[in-house]
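Researcher: Let's run the pair from yesterday's discussion. Sequence first, then tokens, for each.
Model: Starting with the first of the pair.
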Amino acid sequence: MRPPSNAAASKRSRVDPFRAMHVLAAANAREAAGESVLHMEVGEPGERLPAVVRDAIVHALDHAPLGYTEALGIKALRRGIAELYRDWYGCTLEPERIAVTVGASGAFVLSLLAAFDAGARIGVGEPGYPPYKTMVRALDLAPVMLRTQPMHGFQPTPEDVAVAAPLDGLIVASPANPTGTMLEGVARQKLLAACRARGIRVIMDEIYHGLVFEGGETTVAAEAPEAIVVNSFSKLFGLTGWRIGWVVLPTDLVEPVEKLAQNLFIAPPAIAQHAALAVLQHRAVFEGRRQRYRANWQRLAAALEASGLDGSAIVKAAGAFYLYADMAGFTEDSMAFCGRMLAETGVAATPGIDFDAGRGHHYVRFSVAGTDHDIEEAAKRLGTWLPGQRRNRPGG
């Protein structure tokens, strides 16, 4: 049957691509052709799940009920997440405020729909995770881009909020993607106070908690009960393909999110919830990852500096597993640069234009979540290739 002559995709679907996924597709095609690829383009831990966790998942396949669960998740998993907050932060949370979701992405969709009406203005910092603004726009909300600054770790400030006003909501990530920087202490308290004074609902993305390089983290859930706090089992625990996350909700949003979840998703996948239960029961086996990622970050940073990149061009990460670098000495077209790098070295990385429309044309993000061997090999290849890419004329 032919579509109507006036058929067209919706305006909401006219969003920017997630270029990291384009790079992944190109890298996979190269790999399928038998070429070597070092995957540094997507934020995905390179380790296999520990054997004890795999065994627990196999046991669940044989013995656990795997049909529909409650819309907000298995009660035992919600209790387990509440216990995680107690152990990590000394924070007491009612499990009823926790909704298990189809990845952190599902948490964002449900939270944005529950908290804001169409047309609401949502602040989103640049550089930042691309789907923030895409989800906001696709849900008929209005993304308001905040041009964050290097001296503030590319984190939003009360002054940024004032310039962008009026805002109905603000999305913040700590540690952040792509920079790995954090919003903590007095800076965070000031931002939360500024948002509270202006009636701005904060959505805090804490998906990289557990991967802070030094010291510990504090959660916004402990200091701002009106905030929405999103997390996931993807990063520290490596359940990326299982698509399982959670959100800590203010009490006024629990019922709205539950009704939306019932209608939009029915429930998160049961087997993914049992996988999440398994990692919570064995989370000690994941403790060494933060230091390994820190060592990988340092190894790659040293290789880039040895190849002629000024150390000040590398954003100092406090956590997560990304190295975000200003490559202006090598390119003014990060998309083309990443394409050449993949074709000529087999190193796949993400162009900064994915994260920052204004300044990202000379930034590149490398994920250091791969194996130690992959990071070492990438450092060698880039050490050979990068010096020949330096731009010769000043400023151009």
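Model: Moving on to the second of the pair.
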Amino acid sequence: MFAQRYRWIFITLLATYSFLNIRFTGGDRLVGTSLSDGYLLVIILIMVAALWEGNRLIQRFLKRNGQGLHPLVLHFLASLLLVLVISVVPLLFIPEATSQFAEEVRLTLAFTFRVNLFLHGVNAIIFYIYQLKDAQIETQKLKRQTVEAQFEALRNQINPHFLFNSFNVLSNLVYKDADASAKFIQQLSNVYRYLIYHQENKLVPLKEELDFMSSYLYLLEIRFSENLNIQLEFPTNLDGYHIAPVSLQMLIENAIKHNVLSQKRPLSISLAMDHDYLSVSNNIQLKTEIEESTGVGLQNIIKRYEFLTDKPVQVENNAQQFTVRLPLIQLHEHGSADS
């Protein structure tokens, strides 16, 4: 507080208030003798200014050298010596005020001590307000770092999950069809190029995610042939819409993991725009035994979206159809979500 940029305005206001308080309560005998209004105001202004500036210098010194006690306590104790000095010095310039020196010091000491106590009270309030504000900033910073760390952990689960499934397919394909294997590897490289390019992003444009899906769907076509039927229904204009990267791929993998796929019972998956949501639906034909998983999937997506938007991921499950609805995020509303 004492280093306040506009401190001279506050010094003048405090001195004026002190003068009016003394004058209108009959206390014009500040230094043991009656003083004119002008002289009294000047003395009060000098004393208040000396207190303020002296405390400012003490505060500056303690910032560099103070240790041990709480800075407010140390500052107040040091200011008491300042109060004593300022209480005595004005008496040296008033010859009439030396007849009863002890009484005169008592009057000036009482005034300077009250003013000093008031200044330190305000300084303590400001000190703790700033302490509280700094603590809130640190808390928010810690929360943000925690969220970022959690999000990073979730995002890092995607690549091992996808790689696990892709290599399983490729290991079977290389022994059956060399040309198909080569094309599969090309499409797989396209997919991983996309993953590497967007690995630092929390959001990607929906159009880019669908372009990525075209390569990914080719991999599924090789993997499952007519056992899997995927339909996409999207408008031509997708500008402004964003989505968590690879979330569509993970939902499709999740549907494949839990359901039977065969020529007699093909799995049908549809992806479509639904107002401000993207819905991914599949018919339910659950496996009796679920294949081994890396432990990521729908919960990963739900948690990621909790970091990105207030709109929840919607999950609907009935006897015939399983649907996940992902909120589409418009960047101008959630620009901070995009890295």
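Researcher: Give me one sentence on the second I can quote.
Model: The first strand starts at residue 204 and ends at 205.
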